């Protein structure tokens, strides 16, 4: 503190920071990226361990004797599904009832804001069927949920068969302490959303659902089954949540402990668990990969993982033993492999190093603004100067946010008009409108301040940049706290751009770099990058089509499930980026 | 075995003699007493095969004692009535006591109405009403309960109570009810009644291995060989109302003894087995009742009143309690009294209380609300609501979850906090009156007015208890907080203190080294130094 109360040393420190600003920023950036890369290196990460005592070693039976019968049920389900041309509701109800469950159905319907071309649906109507296994001598206060989505085509029939087989097996056991809900939901995520909203009697996304008749108390944990082949060679754990929410790490640990015990190849998000298991991982070609109900449960305060799993009675039994909700272990973590994890304390510094760059730039600008070139000693003159300054800073702020608002609202509002005037389908209209507004935003606002204040002042762009830099620091900081992956990717591209943009840089080159580093282009690159990681490289044209469908999915996810990525980009990140665009073209 | 039994007899005889003697003593000493107080013990078991394939067994043991614990009477001799309870009653002048230990939830929609309703997983007392929703009932509650019986678990129906079987069930509820009852129609004197009840529902799938076949041995792993010798009546009733011609299930050994009773507004027929008669046990000297289903068809009469409750919403800030009450009567509405006691840490927003049935506002005719006081008393909400026929009435009230002090959290706070079940008391129209089916043969004079028996009956039902999560701190937090506050105080206070106590002086700029040397030389020379 002596450092700051001593004006000399403070000045020395500030001088150092301003003089070495650019090199420090560069070092920070490299250090941040290196730190992040280091997280993949095993010695730098922690081994997973079980925090919840109740899920530790327990005496459980690990044989599931009715595997063959479950497969037969799966085949029967497939036949009935084909005959009914959708979910065989009556058959499911009858089968579940014969297995001694209390069976209920829920109808739901939802009209999408525009037709979804990937899944070919617009007016969605469906039925969820669920059966409750009442725990003997328990007062209906807690529940576990086991779900299997009823997918179109031949997918996932075995999962439903397994679900029903498990229901039968579990029904004959006495040791349940929590009700177990077996749910077969239609239209994957929409059905799941409808069921969860019905269960909690809330309506956040505007789905029409019929109220549920039977409940089982507060949901403690949920597992979702996906299985599309008769023979299992490997298990895959998928940890996903809306807006970057994750299930408690103990649920993943449980899966890992289980994998180790039975000695089956286990993968996480499709990647083999440990490097030396690579060979085994590759032979697991039957491993199904498809979209299913991801962790909506996380937003309803119940934790879920999705497993493509064959005999995980063990997991259910251990969840049954839970005395409390899962809370002991981490909620913020990254998993480089099944056996290792990175906790928030280890990964946040990587982002912190990137965010420091913005703060250093802000400090630099602040110092530059605070020591104006000696021009006048008169305070009154300064005051007079400050009023147009406010206006010239405020105008770009307002305009870029209005553009952002237009990007958020117009694509869906004006899809009908667009379809009338151009030969495109609704979903193309929405995506193309979004891209058009995005591009138009580049041309629109960057000379407005001249209309107001006549001549742009050297000081003004500094004030604007100071505000923009701080704005971006806060924005990225909040995003990274909630959803680290999104925050870090945005920071990687936006921070260098934000740090070094001034009106004095070569215009054409800078503009080109800025466009390359803009959120939309980042998304485009990520599409290619992701395909590369999946080892299914695509041509540019296919990649572009994928990019378009990703945008439409983003908009749909927002209106269907309340995903926050689209509004975040449209209302915050894009306007923030526009501010820097504005600075580049400051005159 | 026979010898042992004989010894028991002897003991009892001796006991009776002592009792007589004591009675005489009292008479002699006071000169105003009556003959020794009469006591009476009855036991019965009702078995109702349920449509779902489950089976419901209800034991009742009644001890009636013509004595008076009140008015300063010192009762010191006990015969059938358990002494441990009698002492409690006389010491604390208890008027009435009802305690029930229940594990599980009565599934009204599958099992119909129970003979004795009890709240799920609770221990409750009237007059002073309390519930303990987190308690677990186990064998250690059953053993003392069995000891209250005159025959213990040595003879009579109580031999069936093997704890490993009774707790291998879907529902288990044991209760003790003590109350004064009138001895005669004028009610000049009262006698004390002790009723011990035990209700169990055995599950088709877990206890019955999925076979629709039940026997006493399968249910209790015991058969009956005798009645309790102290019991004046010892009977088993099997509910055969749904099975008049034996088309649903088959009952062996058959009995011709039938009994009819109106239970909960419904006329039921029972097969009766009298254990005090030797021929009940047949040549095998043991009774093993066997119920074998013939078909799984047919449906059970739904109970007319059904209720359920749940918490809506998610997150840890607010929520909403929904109570649903179903009236399945096709044409009659009836009033119910809803009693809800909610702990103070759910802060009810009573202005959000709504009562709707059939989509319309249903104004309760009476509302009594006693607001909670933090850490002192819970919310108490009582409402008299009319349930329209064939409808669902929904009572909703929003609440906010309070943040407790950190010492107030129970162990395992992340499990959540229980809210006891709400109690719904109602006078439900009788099923007999509802019966519009004229195909049943009955005398013409009896069918003109459908209401023959009492037109309504009293029912008390309990909803599910709720498990509500409260915002729970991370309990390692105090350490973090201490670290953080110490750092902030040290840094903030330190620098402020530094600024306040420091004396500021204008510092002379340090002269350069060359100048200093020059000044030393100048001083030596006696010339004034350089500035």
TrEMBL record, chain A:
<keyword id="KW-1133">Transmembrane helix</keyword>
<keyword id="KW-0812">Transmembrane</keyword>
<feature type="transmembrane region" description="Helical">
    <location>
        <begin position="390"/>
        <end position="410"/>
    </location>
</feature>
<comment type="function">
    <text>Component of the glycosylphosphatidylinositol-anchor (GPI-anchor) transamidase (GPI-T) complex that catalyzes the formation of the linkage between a proprotein and a GPI-anchor and participates in GPI anchored protein biosynthesis. Binds GPI-anchor.</text>
</comment>
<keyword id="KW-0472">Membrane</keyword>
<dbReference type="GO" id="GO:0016255">
    <property type="term" value="P:attachment of GPI anchor to protein"/>
</dbReference>
<feature type="transmembrane region" description="Helical">
    <location>
        <begin position="344"/>
        <end position="363"/>
    </location>
</feature>
<feature type="transmembrane region" description="Helical">
    <location>
        <begin position="20"/>
        <end position="41"/>
    </location>
</feature>
<keyword id="KW-0337">GPI-anchor biosynthesis</keyword>
<feature type="transmembrane region" description="Helical">
    <location>
        <begin position="508"/>
        <end position="530"/>
    </location>
</feature>
<keyword id="KW-0256">Endoplasmic reticulum</keyword>
<comment type="pathway">
    <text>Glycolipid biosynthesis; glycosylphosphatidylinositol-anchor biosynthesis.</text>
</comment>
<dbReference type="InterPro" id="IPR007246">
    <property type="entry name" value="Gaa1"/>
</dbReference>
<feature type="transmembrane region" description="Helical">
    <location>
        <begin position="468"/>
        <end position="501"/>
    </location>
</feature>
<dbReference type="GO" id="GO:0042765">
    <property type="term" value="C:GPI-anchor transamidase complex"/>
</dbReference>
<protein>
    <recommendedName>
        <fullName>GPI-anchor transamidase component GPAA1</fullName>
    </recommendedName>
</protein>
<dbReference type="Pfam" id="PF04114">
    <property type="entry name" value="Gaa1"/>
</dbReference>
<comment type="subunit">
    <text>Heteropentamer. Part of the GPI-anchor transamidase complex, consisting of PIGK, PIGT, PIGS, PIGU and GAA1. Interacts with PIGK.</text>
</comment>
<keyword id="KW-1015">Disulfide bond</keyword>
<feature type="transmembrane region" description="Helical">
    <location>
        <begin position="564"/>
        <end position="586"/>
    </location>
</feature>
<dbReference type="GO" id="GO:0006506">
    <property type="term" value="P:GPI anchor biosynthetic process"/>
</dbReference>
<keyword id="KW-0325">Glycoprotein</keyword>
TrEMBL record, chain B:
<dbReference type="GO" id="GO:0042765">
    <property type="term" value="C:GPI-anchor transamidase complex"/>
</dbReference>
<protein>
    <recommendedName>
        <fullName>Phosphatidylinositol glycan anchor biosynthesis, class T</fullName>
    </recommendedName>
</protein>
<feature type="transmembrane region" description="Helical">
    <location>
        <begin position="7"/>
        <end position="29"/>
    </location>
</feature>
<dbReference type="GO" id="GO:0016255">
    <property type="term" value="P:attachment of GPI anchor to protein"/>
</dbReference>
<dbReference type="Pfam" id="PF04113">
    <property type="entry name" value="Gpi16"/>
</dbReference>
<dbReference type="InterPro" id="IPR007245">
    <property type="entry name" value="PIG-T"/>
</dbReference>
<keyword id="KW-1133">Transmembrane helix</keyword>
<keyword id="KW-0812">Transmembrane</keyword>
<keyword id="KW-0472">Membrane</keyword>
């Amino acid at each position: 503190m002596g450092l700051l109360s001593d004006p000399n040393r403070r000045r020395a420190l500030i001088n150092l920071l301003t003089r070495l600003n650019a090199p420090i920023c560069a070092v920070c950036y490299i250090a941040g990226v290196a730190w992040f890369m280091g997280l993949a290196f095993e010695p730098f990460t922690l081994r997973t361990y079980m925090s919840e005592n109740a899920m530790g070693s327990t005496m459980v039976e690990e044989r599931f004797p009715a595997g063959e019968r479950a497969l037969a049920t799966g085949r029967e389900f497939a036949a009935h599904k084909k005959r009914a041309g959708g979910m065989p509701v009556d058959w499911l109800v009858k089968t579940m009832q014969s297995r001694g469950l209390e069976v209920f159905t829920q109808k739901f319907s939802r009209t999408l804001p525009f037709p979804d071309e990937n899944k070919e649906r617009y007016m969605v109507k469906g039925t969820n069927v669920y059966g409750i296994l009442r725990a003997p001598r328990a007062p209906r206060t807690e529940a576990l949920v086991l779900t299997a989505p009823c997918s179109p085509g031949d997918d996932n029939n075995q999962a439903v068969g397994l679900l029903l087989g498990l229901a039968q097996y579990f029904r004959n056991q006495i040791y349940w302490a929590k009700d177990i809900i077996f749910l077969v939901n239609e239209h994957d995520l929409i059905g799941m959303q409808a069921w969860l909203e019905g269960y909690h009697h809330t309506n956040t996304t505007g789905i029409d659902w019929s109220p549920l008749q039977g409940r089982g108390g507060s949901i403690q944990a949920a597992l979702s089954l996906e299985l599309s082949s008769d023979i299992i060679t490997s298990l895959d754990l998928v940890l996903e949540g809306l807006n970057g929410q994750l299930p408690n790490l103990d649920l993943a640990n449980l899966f890992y402990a289980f994998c180790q015990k039975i000695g089956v190849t286990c993968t996480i998000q499709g990647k083999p668990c440990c490097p030396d298991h690579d060979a085994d991982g590759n032979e697991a070609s039957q491993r199904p990969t498809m979209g299913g109900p991801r962790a909506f449960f996380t937003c309803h305060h119940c934790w879920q993982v999705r497993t493509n799993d064959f005999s995980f009675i063990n997991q259910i039994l251990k969840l049954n033993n839970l005395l409390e909700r899962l809370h002991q272990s981490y909620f913020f973590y990254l998993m480089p492999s099944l056996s290792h994890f990175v906790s928030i304390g280890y990964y946040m510094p990587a982002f912190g190093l990137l965010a420091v760059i913005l703060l250093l730039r802000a400090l630099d600008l602040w110092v530059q603004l605070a020591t104006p070139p000696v021009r006048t000693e008169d305070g009154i003159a300064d005051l007079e100067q400050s009023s147009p300054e406010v206006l010239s800073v405020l105008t770009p702020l307002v305009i870029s946010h209005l553009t952002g608002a237009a990007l958020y609202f117009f694509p869906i509002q004006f899809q009908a008009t667009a379809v009338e005037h151009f030969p495109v389908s609704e979903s193309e209209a929405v995506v193309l409108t979004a891209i058009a507004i995005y591009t138009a935003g580049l041309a629109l606002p960057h000379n407005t301040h001249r209309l107001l204040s006549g001549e742009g002042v050297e000081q003004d762009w500094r004030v604007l940049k100071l505000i923009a830099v701080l704005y971006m620091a806060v924005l990225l900081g909040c995003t990274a706290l909630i959803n680290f992956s999104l925050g870090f990717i945005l920071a990687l591209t936006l921070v260098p751009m934000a740090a070094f943009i001034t009106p004095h840089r070569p215009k054409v080159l800078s503009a080109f770099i800025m466009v390359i580093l803009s959120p939309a282009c980042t998304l485009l690159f990520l599409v290619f990058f992701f395909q590369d990681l999946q080892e299914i490289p695509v041509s540019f044209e296919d990649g572009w089509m994928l990019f378009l469908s990703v945008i439409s999915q983003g908009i749909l996810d927002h209106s269907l499930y309340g995903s926050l990525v689209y509004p975040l980009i449209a209302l915050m990140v894009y306007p923030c980026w526009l501010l820097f665009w504005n600075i580049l073209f400051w005159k | 075995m026979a010898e042992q039994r004989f010894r028991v007899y002897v003991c009892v005889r001796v006991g009776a003699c002592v009792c007589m003697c004591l009675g005489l003593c009292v008479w002699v000493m006071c000169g105003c007493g009556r003959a020794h107080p009469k006591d009476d013990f009855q036991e019965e078991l009702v078995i109702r095969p349920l449509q779902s394939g489950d089976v419901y067994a209800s034991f009742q043991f009644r001890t009636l004692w013509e004595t008076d614990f009140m008015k300063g009477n010192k009762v010191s001799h006990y015969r059938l009535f358990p002494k441990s309870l009698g002492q409690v009653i006389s010491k604390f002048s208890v008027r009435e006591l009802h305690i029930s230990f229940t594990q599980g939830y009565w599934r009204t929609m599958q099992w119909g109405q129970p003979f004795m309703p009890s709240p799920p997983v609770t221990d409750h007392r009237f007059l002073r009403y309390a519930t303990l929703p987190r308690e677990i009932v186990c064998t250690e509650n059953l053993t003392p309960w069995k000891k209250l019986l005159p025959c213990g678990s040595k003879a009579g129906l109580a031999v069936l109570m093997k704890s490993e079987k009774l707790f291998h069930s879907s529902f288990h509820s044991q209760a003790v009810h003590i109350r004064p009852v009138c001895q005669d129609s004028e009610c000049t004197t009262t006698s004390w009644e002790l009723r011990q009840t035990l209700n169990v529902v055995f599950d088709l799938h877990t206890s019955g291995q999925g076979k629709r076949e039940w026997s006493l041995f399968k249910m209790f792993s015991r058969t009956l060989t005798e009645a309790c010798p102290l019991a004046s009546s010892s009977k088993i009733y099997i509910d055969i109302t749904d099975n008049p011609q034996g088309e649903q299930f088959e009952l062996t050994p058959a009995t011709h003894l039938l009994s009819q009773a109106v239970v909960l507004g419904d006329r039921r027929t029972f097969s009766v087995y009298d254990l005090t008669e030797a021929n009940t046990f047949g040549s095998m000297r043991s009774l093993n009742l066997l119920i074998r289903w013939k078909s799984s068809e047919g449906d059970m009469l739904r109970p007319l009143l059904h209720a359920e409750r749940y918490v809506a919403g998610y997150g840890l800030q607010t929520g909403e309690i929904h109570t649903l009450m179903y009236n399945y009567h096709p044409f009659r509405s009836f009033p119910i009294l809803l009693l809800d006691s909610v702990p103070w840490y759910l802060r009810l927003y009573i202005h959000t209380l709504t009562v709707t049935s059939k989509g319309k506002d249903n104004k309760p005719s009476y509302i009594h609300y006693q607001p909670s006081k933090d850490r002192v008393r819970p919310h108490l909400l009582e409402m008299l609501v009319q349930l329209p026929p064939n409808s669902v009435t929904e009572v909703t009230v929003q609440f906010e979850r309070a943040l407790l002090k950190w010492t107030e959290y129970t162990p395992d706070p992340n499990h959540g906090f229980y809210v006891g079940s709400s109690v719904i008391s109602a006078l439900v129209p009788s099923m007999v009156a509802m019966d519009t089916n004229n195909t049943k043969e009955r005398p013409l004079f009896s069918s003109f007015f459908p209401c023959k028996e009492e037109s309504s009956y009293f029912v008390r039902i309990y909803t599910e208890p709720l498990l509500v999560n409260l915002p729970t701190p991370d309990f390692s937090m105090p350490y973090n907080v201490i670290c953080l506050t110490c750092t902030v105080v040290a840094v903030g206070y330190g620098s402020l203190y530094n600024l306040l106590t420091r004396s500021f002086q204008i510092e002379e700029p340090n002269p350069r080294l060359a100048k200093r040397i020059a000044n030393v030389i100048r001083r030596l020379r006696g010339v004034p130094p350089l500035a």
